[in-house]
Amino acid sequence: MRLLATLAIPAALLALPASAGAFGLTNCTLALTSLDANKIQIDSAASGAPDSTQDNPFLIDWAGTVEWNGTMGGLVITNHRWHVDIFRLPTTLSGSDANEAGDTNGDGTVDVGANVPFRFTGLYYVSGAISGTGGACDGSGWMKVNGDPLATIPFWAGIVILLVGLLLAWYGWRGSWPGAVVGGLLFGLGAAILLVTLAFLPLGSITPLATVVVGLLLGIAVRLFGGSTAPAPDTA
Question: What pTM was estimated for this model as a whole?
Answer without folding.
Answer: 0.84
